[in-house]
Amino acid sequence: MENPYQxxxxxxxxxxxxxxxxxxxxxGQKLVIYAILLYFLAAALxxxxxxxxxxxxxxxxxxxxxxxxxxARGLDYPVWGxxxxxxxxxxxxxxxxxxxxxxxxxxxxxxxxxYSVGLLGARDY
Length: 125
Prior knowledge:
The protein has 4 helices and 2 strands; from the N terminus they run H-H-H-H-E-E. It is mainly α. A two-stranded antiparallel sheet has the order 1-2. Strand 1 (117-118) and strand 2 (121-122) form a beta hairpin. The mean pLDDT is 85.
């Protein structure tokens, strides 16, 4: 006979153990999301301040390249695919679409692995 006063036990499902590739995807996704936000902020600053806001665009480009490389490495993209994605970042609107697409793929991979993913990336990371 079970103890009626025992608290219920929670069943936790962990799909995958943490690995270096999943850590790359999680940290790369955070960089990509911050780069997207900085991209919009830099565009608004460029309209308000002028050419000084180009510094923010350069920081955004560096963050996005690092994030793209980490996500692509974590998702096992071939080297030529990583290079194509990095080159596509130089085209203004296409680069933004690449960032959104990679962030979406990273979100689905992290959720499949059992991570809790919110608006600003993986929470468990």
